[in-house]
Amino acid sequence: MLNAVEPAIAVDQLVKVYKTTRAVDGISFALERGSITGLLGGNGAGKTTTIAMITGLVMPTSGTVKVLGAAMPRQRYQVLHEMNFESPHVDMPHRLTVRQNLKVFGRLYAVEDLDGRIAALAREFDLSEFLDRPTGKLSAGQKTRVALAKALINSPRVLLLDEPTASLDPDTADWVRGHLERFRRERGATVLLASHNMSEVERLCERVIIMKRGHIEDDDTPQRLLVRYGRQTLEEVFLDVARGRGETREAAQ
Amino acid sequence: MSAPSISAVTLAPHRIAAMVLRYVYLLRSSWTRLVELIYWPAVQLLVWGFLQFYIAQNSGFFARASGVFIAAVLMWDVLFRGQLGFSVSFLEEMWSRNLTNLMISPLRPIEFVCALMIMSLIRLAIGMLPVTFLAMAFFGFNVYALGLALAAFFVNLILTSWAVGIVVAGVLLRNGMGAESLAWTLMFVLMPLTCVYYPVSVLPDWLQVIAWTLPPTYVFEGMRALLMEHVIRADLMLEAFALNALYFAAGVLAFLQLLKSARRVGSLLQTGE
After folding, report:
1. pLDDT digits (tens, 9 = 90+) for A136-165
2. Which residue has the higher pLDDT, A176 or B216?
3. What is the H or E stretch that residue B159 is in?
4. How many angstroms away from the CA of A122 is the closest CA of chain B?
5. If contacts are CB pairs under 8 Å, which of residues 176-215 in chain B contact chain A?
6. Most CB atoms closer than 10 Å: which of A50, A172, B8, B250?
7. pLDDT tier at B36 (50, 70, 90 boundaries)?
8. Residue B264: predicted pLDDT
9. How far apart are CA B200 and CA B233, in angstroms?
10. Is the pLDDT at B100 greater than 70, yes or no?
11. A175-214 burial, b for 16+ CB within 10 Å, e for fewer?
12. Are the beta carbons of A84 and B104 separated by less than 8 Å?
């Protein structure tokens, strides 16, 4: 039985070592149910490995990850039906049509009234006219919308997103953010969003975790980070952290 | 080595059906894939069938052993295409970069394996059924006349093909696409040892010992006994089945361990080369 009062995601002293590289080095955080959190960091900061350990794709070297109270990856089958994931680095079968792909994933997640759910997602993500087109023949933006529809097919309680708007034009990206915001609000889902897009994080996230070389460098609300670093935007805060100026600035203050 | 958890071996038919549906959609989307399934077995049959036809005209021994080459070709294709059908369906996930989606879904590894076994049978049926009718039309060889023995041959060969396919899938999970060539070539390592076209007795003594550790060797010997001496060797089929049960269980355990190792080294994130 899953614990209803535990955090949606609880990460404790998590370490992942690949051969001699410490990709994730003793990080801890807990995400409240229904919260939306941004995971920021440059390339190699450990964001993807952290998300992979939360999904159970990668086994931690030490430390623990719990999702909805289930220890990952050991108890993953208790919660995988309540989770979903989207990343531009992962594709769906190109030769299958959008409808076929959504049907396959809907059945894997045992979605009730699957045809109705696919129709609703198609309306929501403006996919109706592409439903019977092979997924491989869609534009990058259309594919991202299909991937997001797949990520929401089971109305997950925990949604993990790795740069969800990376290949979208600004208008579509903004539109997608609106949908994610609404989904989170209506479903009460917990969202963890890894992104390089600071304005996206600023708009969507109520909390930001900044990673660097496998460590958590900072963890706070966007507003408090701006005040603490004395910056106007999260991008400036991110650059301060990435270039090691954060500590200096704080020390000077 | 820790035992797999109970949840890893629980089966849900709807998830197996979802995966089979995914591969059926794929086959339906491409007529070239369907033609390819029949093309090579048909070419192989015609080449060996005509060769047997020629030799039989010039040798009393081969005239008596009518159909032995053709039966060997068909049986070898059950073994090879059975494994290929399993492995290619698995490779489709890697080629389409879809494996991560499956691995974070509720699909259990054993359900995935079951779906791949079902697809191996479907692909085999599409490829081999027309070829068996071709054998009747061109060479007057009716493989179905082998009756129950054919069923025993088939079950043993398909079990071996799955055991090999499962191990190949595990190696691909652990080592990525760099190991893809294994899927196409591993069965050919077994070909000379399983004595598809010649009796075990032609091998050197030390190789015979190795040959008898492989279930298909029993099938091909049993097939020759049936076609040349008209004797059904049930003993050989039972021994092959016992070995297959052992290898199949070992294959599943190896797959689960390789999957666990893939989670440890992070290769499920990097399924490319």
Report:
1. 999 988 998 999 999 999 999 999 999 888
2. B216
3. helix B148-175
4. 20
5. none
6. A50
7. confident
8. 93
9. 15
10. yes
11. ebbebbeebbeeeebbbbbbbbbbebbbebbebbbbbbeb
12. yes
The reported pTM is 0.90
Distance in angstroms (rounded) separating the CA atoms of residues A64 and A72: 7
- Eight-class DSSP state of B235: H
Report residue B112 CA to chain centroid gap.
17
Instruction: Find tokens 């053709």 and name the residue.
Output: B70
Residues spanned by the domain of B254: 10-265
**Residue (of B168, B184, B180) closest to B94 by Cα position:** B180
Provide the shortest C-alpha distance from residue B96 to chain A (in Å).
5
Per-range mean pLDDT, top range of B132-141, B163-172, B184-193: B163-172
The angle subtended at Cα A82 by Cα A39 and Cα A59, nearest 5°, is 60
Enumerate residues 6+ apart whose C-beta is below 8 A from B19. Answer: A104, A108, B107, B111, B112, B115, B116
d(CA B50, CA A190): 67
B270 part of contact set with chain A, CB < 8 Å = no
Q: A15 exposed, middle or buried (CB, 10 Å; 0-12, 13-18, 19+)? A: middle
Q: Could you tell me what percent of chain B has a pLDDT over 70?
A: 92
Question: In chain B, how many domains are there?
Answer: 1
In a domain? residue B24: yes
Say which CATH architecture domain A37-56+80-220 belongs to. Answer: 3-Layer(aba) Sandwich (3.40)
**How close A195 gets to chain B, by Cα (Å)?**
18
Burial class (CB in 10 A: 0-12, 13-18, 19+), B40: middle
Reduce the secondary structure of chain A to three states and give it as a string.
CCCCCCCCEEEEEEEEEECCEEEEEEEEEEECCCCEEEEEECCCCCHHHHHHHHHCCCCCCEEEEEECCEEECCCHHHCHHHEEEECCCCCCCCCCEHHHHHHHHHHHCCCCCHHHHHHHHHHHCCCHHHCCCEHHHCCHHHHHHHHHHHHCCCCCCEEEEECCCCCCCHHHHHHHHHHHHHHHHHHCCEEEEECCCHHHHHHHCCEEEEEECCEEEEEECHHHHHHHHCCCCHHHHHHHHHCCCHHHHHHHC
What is the tens place of the pLDDT at every residue in B178-194?
Answer: 888 988 999 999 999 99
CA distances from B257 to A78, A154, B250, B252 (A): 21, 29, 10, 9
Of the candidates B224, B220, B211, B218, the one whose C-alpha atom is nearest the C-alpha of residue B241 is B218
Residue B2 in domain: no
ipTM: 0.89
Which sequence spans correspond to the domains of chain A?
37-56+80-220, 221-253
**Look-up of token digits 């929401």:** A152
- Looking at residue B197, the DSSP 8-state letter turns out to be S
Judge whether B19 is closer than 8 Å to chain A, CB to CB.
yes
Q: What is the pLDDT of residue A4?
A: 60
Distances (CA, A) of A60 to A10, A18, B150: 14, 10, 49
